[in-house]
Design brief:
alpha/beta, Elongation Factor Tu (Ef-tu), domain 3, Rossmann fold, six-stranded antiparallel β-sheet, five-stranded parallel β-sheet, 15 helices, 15% strand, globular
Length: 447
């Protein structure tokens, strides 16, 4: 995610301090800090509701949509922590007068807190079925509106009409409007591009869908993903999938979808040629750089899909030498290998390398460095596959001279837990990384 977006969010939370500090001269600072925590939670939740709208321009500020999903999760976690501390730390002050709704607002604040906590917990418990989670997730906006009601009418040492009150109110309204847009108005607004399914193929565990535009169609870049919904069926719910075909003049599209859940399994059974579909605008910044620098593409399993589009696009553009590692488990079950081999024959700078773990072969940083002649300083590495594999390769390649900023990947898991085990693993990996780096520095011959 982009630092510009993180800075804006941090400033949005810190700005109220300029109004809270003068109040500390006449009010209990502990209670005032509790109120600041509650205000910050409302600011974060308002921003979180807004970035969930997928409005144009959000990727420019916050980074690609996959990173925005990660940001959305962590903003929710931080907001829940702030709200929980606000409830734990005594926020009551003497000498305050509330309106006739102050008592009700106090009770509604408790309802909002526990409702949001339950829904936030459901969001990070990943074994809850997706359709149940998505249904419950829609209720978050209602509990956020209750939290805003709590803020508007609760006893507090400032008025809603004061600069501080107007500031917090603006984020409350932003969140409520964003929620109403997503839940009520957006479904009624025509969006996306109309398509008709022209071909359906089953390739092992993949379902390949080709679509022809009914109108002008969608314009995209290789490696991007889009939201697909099949009209007039039980498959009308939007789901994001990588576009596995390069852009074509007629703007036809291809999706290669792996059976990973209830929706994708139902899609495999029910999708048919002739069905109509809607595809939203493309998202993601996982795309090839221009220039003559060497490139390493690593696709594991279904992670090969963006590289099919990458490879096709090489027919119409010049780039540096490319090595495509296709990591698989069984040689006989490799979708697109024939297609990729044909493209590699047509494009002189593309080399396809099959890495078959069933034969005891593993892709390692040592092998990548050796294949590239030992110099990784000018290379770009693009990866799409399992997280554990990505972390191991990135760590090893950086130790061998790859610039960390040149290791490109997408967070293609749209729903994840809060990652306490991941945090522990990250701390462990950082320790091992530091040890290995010091060891490499000691063993490197002096010039």
């Amino acid at each position: 995610m982009r630092i510009s977006g993180l800075v804006l969010i941090a400033l949005a939370c810190l700005l109220p301090i300029i109004w809270f500090v003068p109040l500390a001269a006449t009010r209990d600072p502990v209670a005032l800090f509790s109120q600041y925590l509650g205000s910050s939670a409302l600011v974060l939740m308002g921003i979180n509701q807004f970035i969930a709208t997928r409005m144009p321009g959000l990727e420019t500020v916050f980074g690609s949509l996959d990173r925005i999903y990660v940001l959305h999760k962590w903003l929710g976690v931080i907001a829940m922590v702030a709200m929980g501390l606000h409830d734990i730390v005594d926020a009551e002050m003497n000498g305050l007068r509330g309106g006739p709704l102050a008592g009700i607002a106090e009770d509604i604040g408790e309802i909002s807190l526990y409702g949001l906590l339950v829904l936030a917990l459901a969001s990070v418990i990943t074994f809850i079925p997706y359709h149940l989670w998505k249904w419950s997730h829609r209720l978050i906006g209602i509990f956020f509106a209750l939290a805003a009601f709590h803020f508007f009418f609760i006893e507090k040492p400032f008025s809603v009409a004061d600069p501080l009150g107007l500031y917090i109110s603006a984020f409350c309204l932003l969140g409520i409007i964003s929620y109403l847009w997503m839940s009520l108005f957006r479904p009624m607004v025509p969006r996306g591009h109309g398509y008709k399914i022209s071909a359906v193929r089953h390739l092992g565990g993949l379902t390949e869908i080709e679509l022809k535009p009914k109108g002008r169609g969608l314009k995209h870049k290789p490696g991007q993903f889009a939201f697909l919904s099949i009209n007039g069926s039980g498959l009308s719910e939007e789901h994001p999938f990588t576009l596995s075909g390069a852009p074509h003049e007629d703007r036809s599209l291809r999706f290669s979808i792996k059976d990973l859940g209830n929706y994708t399994r139902r899609l495999r059974r029910e999708v048919e040629t002739g069905m109509e579909a809607t595809v939203t605008r493309p998202f993601g910044h996982f795309s090839m750089p221009f220039g003559r620098d060497p490139q390493i593409w690593i696709g594991a399993g279904v992670g090969i899909t963006p590289f099919i589009a990458f490879a096709e696009s090489l027919k119409s553009r010049e780039t540096g030498p490319v090595k495509l590692y296709y990591c698989v488990r069984e040689r006989d079950d490799i979708p697109y290998v024939v297609e990729l081999e044909k493209i590699a024959e047509e494009v002189s700078g593309l080399e396809l390398i099959i890495v078959n773990s069933a034969e005891g072969v593993r892709l390692t940083p040592d092998r990548v460095a050796t294949d590239l002649g030992g110099d990784l300083s000018q290379a770009h590495v693009f990866f799409c596959g399992p997280v554990a594999m990505r972390k191991a390769l990135r760590r090893g390649l950086v130790l061998k001279g790859l610039r960390a900023s040149r290791f490109h990947f997408e967070e293609f898991q749209m729903r994840t837990g809060i990652g306490l085990s991941t945090l522990a693993e990250w701390l462990w990996d950082r320790g091992i990384y530091a040890i290995e780096k010091r060891r490499a520095a000691r063993t490197q011959p002096a010039e």
